[in-house]
Amino acid sequence: LTHTAGWIAIPIALIWSLAVRWAPRSEDRRFRPAPVLAAAGGWLLGQLVHPNLPHNFWLLWTQNVVVPLATLGAETRSLREALGLELLRPSGSFLLEQWPVFVAPALAVAQLFRRPAARTPAALTTSILAAAFLLAGAFFLRRLLENGAVLGLLALAVIAAEAVRRGERPPLARRGRSVAALALLLGAAWTVWGVRDFGRGDLRPQGNARPLAMASFLGENGRRGDLVFTAQWADSAPLLYAAPQLRSLVAQDPTFFYAKDPQLFDRYWAIAHGRSGDPVGEIVRRFGARYVTIWKAPGFQPLARQLRRDRRAWIVFQDFAYEVWEINASR
User: Fold this and answer.
1) DSSP state, 168?
2) In whole angstroms, how far apart are CA 50 and each of 3, 47, 59, 63?
3) d(CA 328, CA 283)
């Protein structure tokens, strides 16, 4: 419950407590406050014993309020370019491509309408949550669609299990269950293949610990406390694991950096894309960095070309996917 999204347990418990009143076969329809109080009390206790108290409350506010609002507004060019696709509002064409995520939740809701006896607290809770995440994902943040799809599958499974328990014909007959099992196998195979092939078109490193090769080099050669200017902000992740003694500019989400200092974030993004007249000087003066990591994607090549022309920067590591530069503005 100390996770930044742990508070979601509270509305889940509230929906469960209300669903008891909506279930037609519930013997006791009184509102049950115990689940809500337990979830809220556990969440609050987890925050109060958090080792980063009181800064964890700032993190909660930033993650759950500032980041979504900044993401939806994305008022600057730099933030719009930096945001991951999963944080953007989906387009109509994207939703059409993602139609499978709506199948299980739609079937679950249809069963609830058709079979009043299926409206158990568990079925109502999971179905309501699935619908809520799907609506939020369809109109605000596309990353929430995947939560709705999983909850929809869970709701459909709960309804089917309840039908079997009552001795009724389950929502899927024998042939339907076979088709569903085959669909799951095909989906699993497709997922494995998609992950294996992910990024091949945009040069994202594949296989054998890359981009960890870049991060491992810095872990072996960087001094404790050295700061790394990561042109691709997500490179902070491999650096965290392979070079924990170093510091980097962005972690978790670029919106955290933006929320702390919007003007400095705009300069960071401009420099990373070659829109600075003196990148080495700015990187040293504004950020105090010693190293620059450049992912060999087209968007970051203008910065790489600028560094090649500057005698204050020299390359210390290179492979097919990354360059690592050391810089010294006084050289």
Assistant:
1) P
2) 10, 5, 12, 16
3) 10
Residue pLDDT, tens place only, 156-172 = 888 888 887 777 766 55
Distance CA 309, CA 240 (A): 30
- The residue to which tokens 């981009």 are assigned: 211
Question: What is the tens place of the pLDDT at every residue in 174-228?
Answer: 666 777 788 788 888 877 776 665 444 344 444 433 688 899 999 999 999 999 9
As a residue count, the chain comes to: 331
> How many C-beta neighbours within 10 Å does residue 162 have?
19
**Strand pairing report for 313-318 and 247-248:** unpaired
10 is written with which tokens?
């509270």
For residue 169, the model assigns a pLDDT of: 66
Full strand arrangement of the beta sheet holding 291-295: 247-248, 227-230, 291-295, 322-327, 313-318
**d(Cα 1, Cα 260) in Å, to the nearest integer?**
25
Q: What is the largest CA-CA distance in the chain?
A: 81
Backbone angles phi, psi at 209, to 5 degrees: 60, 35
Residue 304, amino acid: A
pLDDT of residue 206: 43
Under 8 Å between Cβ of 162 and 116 = no
According to DSSP, the residues that pair with 295 across neighbouring strands are 322
Would the pTM count as exceeding 0.85? Answer: no
Q: Provide the pLDDT for residue 260.
A: 83
Whole-Å CA distances, 6 to 9, 39, 63, 129: 6, 9, 12, 15
pLDDT at 331: 62
Q: Is the pLDDT of residue 149 over 70?
A: yes
Here the tokens at position 78 are 């730099």
Residue at token pair 């599958």: 153
Could you list the beta-strand ranges (E) of the chain.
227-230, 247-248, 291-295, 313-318, 322-327
Enumerate the β-bridge partners of residue 230: 293
Determine the 3-state secondary structure of 94 from DSSP: helix
Average pLDDT over residues 72-81: 70
- Write out the DSSP string of 13-55: HHHHHHHHHH-TT-S--S--HHHHHHHHHHHHHHHHT-TTTTH
